Amino acid sequence: MSLNVSPTLLATAERGPVSDEEFVACVRESLPYAWEVVSKVMTDLRSGGGDFADHEIPPPTDRERGQLLRALASDSIRGGLERHFGAKLAFQNCHRVAAFSYDAVGNDRYQAFVSPRGQLLNQSPELRNC
């Protein structure tokens, strides 16, 4: 299961749309490691003054790696996080999370990060198990 959905939130979803605020709160509570990594990279993006920030530290366990995979592989979770923080997320190697300002999407750095070449150049033998 990806998210720990409360009975109240499930009932809300069964009746109709759920607000981003409610959804993001569920993500934050369900995937604390992923939330921590995304929050850090978004804070780094804002405080760095540039259009890019990334987090390259591998998760300490497979449990935390699983949280990142669930958060960033899900269109709805990733989209909710992007709307909440106001920036675009990108993901490589089962752990490298990057944030780009929306103005940077499409620029050379963004294209290089999300390209097949970028993925291949960021491989290493120690990442084969992710």
Strand order of the largest sheet: 1-3-2
What is the terminal separation in angstroms? 19 Å
Helix content: 55-70%
Estimated structural class: mainly alpha
Number-wise, the strands total: 3
Percentage beta strand:
5-15%
* Low-confidence runs of at least 5 consecutive residues: none
Query: What can be said about the biggest beta sheet?
Result: 3 strands, antiparallel
Order of helices and strands: HHHEHHEEHH
Overall geometric form:
globular
Average of per-residue pLDDT values = 91
Structure description:
The protein is mainly alpha-helical and 130 residues long. 56% of the residues lie in helices and 11% in strands. The chain has helices at residues 7-15, 20-30, 32-48, 62-73, 75-85, 108-114, 116-121, and strands spanning 52-55, 88-92, 96-100. A three-stranded antiparallel sheet has the order 1-3-2, with helices on both faces. Helix 2 packs across helix 3 (32-48), helix 2 crosses helix 5 and helix 3 (32-48) crosses helix 4 (62-73). It is globular. The two termini are 19 Å apart. The mean pLDDT is 91.
Short description:
Helices cover 56% and strands 11% of the residues. By secondary structure, it is mainly alpha-helical. The two termini are 19 Å apart.
Task: Show the helix and strand layout.
Layout: H1 7-15, H2 20-30, H3 32-48, E1 52-55, H4 62-73, H5 75-85, E2 88-92, E3 96-100, H6 108-114, H7 116-121
Antiparallel strand pairs: 1-3, 2-3
Characteristics:
130 residues, mainly alpha, 3-stranded antiparallel beta sheet, 3 strands, globular
